[in-house]
Amino acid sequence: MWLTCPPGVYLPQHDTSLLSTALAAAGIRPGARVLDIGCGTGALSIAAARTHPSSITAVDVSRRAVWAARLNTLVRGIRANVLRGDVFERVAGRMFDLILANPPYVPGTARKPHGRHRAWDAGVDGRELVDRLCANAPLLLTPRGTLLVVHSGLCDTEKTLRQLRGGGLKAAVVARAEVPFGPVMHGRRRELLALGLIDPDQRSEELVVIRGDLPATP
């Protein structure tokens, strides 16, 4: 799929493809109100448009990503409200039937990310935004609403499942893929080894898509 992707904006890769495939198999009913968290180029908003939603809201902290997502959806005739800022502040008080999230999840650094690094740097354990997502998703989902989130297995898949279940969601891993390390992961091997997150000879990571569904009644 052709996409405008300015310098500094996350280029869709294995994680985007895995989440898009999980979305296609999720059985989302037409008319859903969709939230795309960390939209980047808008690739997942474009994928969500195939489910015939009633609305799409996409949010990213990057000005360039917002511009790219607006352009990429516009040229396809997709109506999407693309916003810049902290997603949980921008959509506070609203509820959605479907939440898609490809958050930053690369572990290994404690420094505050800036510029293009905001697309992947996620603290020492890779959960800086994942933890916030798990805490906020139950508040943002409508009854029978669905969350689909992708992240690395290095970020503790079981912790994500526990947090979502603790928030009242039925949660399970619905897709997995083993993918080779890209430039970012190769560049962070020393930190990942020191943290005990990878083995010395490891050259790949597992990506997982986790689905969380909010029951109709508590």
Describe this structure in words.
The structure is a single chain. The chain has 218 residues and is α/β, with parallel strands linked by helices. It has a single domain (32-213), classed as Rossmann fold. It is built from 8 helices and 7 strands. Strands 3-2-1-4-5-7-6 form a 7-stranded mixed β-sheet.
Q: How is this fold's topology laid out?
A:
Elements: H1 14-24, E1 33-37, H2 43-49, E2 55-60, H3 63-74, E3 81-84, H4 87-90, E4 96-101, H5 128-140, E5 141-152, H6 157-166, E6 170-180, H7 183-187, H8 189-194, E7 204-213
Parallel strand pairs: 1-2, 1-4, 2-3, 4-5
Antiparallel strand pairs: 5-7, 6-7
Main pleated-sheet profile: 7 strands, mixed
Q: What string gives the helices and strands in order? A: HEHEHEHEHEHEHHE
Strand order of the largest sheet: 3-2-1-4-5-7-6
Structural class: alpha/beta
Summed up, the helix count is 8
- What is the CATH level 1 assignment? Alpha Beta
For CATH, the homologous superfamily is named as Vaccinia Virus protein VP39
The total count of strands amounts to 7
